[in-house]
Design brief:
about 85% helix, single chain, mainly alpha, DUF423
């Protein structure tokens, strides 16, 4: 299963670079600076948590499989989809309701990092 997090991390990382370039080149002339900043925030958190997925897979290889690390990986995936995805949708559509989803994704990120901490404490 951790192989899946490596693949997901690679895909999300690839998409973060592609979306960042899309924002810098195609959206720069079409969006207000504030909306472009919102989009770039989504890209930033997606890239960061793509790397976090790779970290989860690496930790699993070093520490052995752990249900806490499995939870961390799935929470990071959910966080990317909910947090970054809602910011992309909000920016591109202007529908403010997507902003209500963003905090749920943020909570997924926080919970994922808490799972990493707990996995570390259990391993030591």
């Amino acid at each position: 299963m951790y192989r899946g997090f490596i693949v997901a991390g690679g895909i999300f990382g690839f998409l973060a670079v592609a979306l960042g370039a899309f924002a810098a080149h195609a959206l720069k002339q079409r969006l207000s600076p504030d909306r472009l900043d919102v989009f770039q925030t989504g890209v930033h958190y997606q890239a960061t948590h793509a790397l976090a997925l790779l970290l989860v897979a690496a930790l699993a290889a070093v520490l052995g499989g752990s249900s806490l690390l499995m939870w961390a990986g799935w929470l990071f995936v959910a966080g990317i989809i909910l947090f970054s995805g809602s910011l992309y949708a909000l920016t591109l559509t202007g529908v403010g309701a997507f902003g209500a989803i963003t905090p749920v994704g943020g909570l997924c990120f926080l919970a994922g990092w808490l799972m990493v901490v707990l996995a570390g404490l259990r391993a030591g």
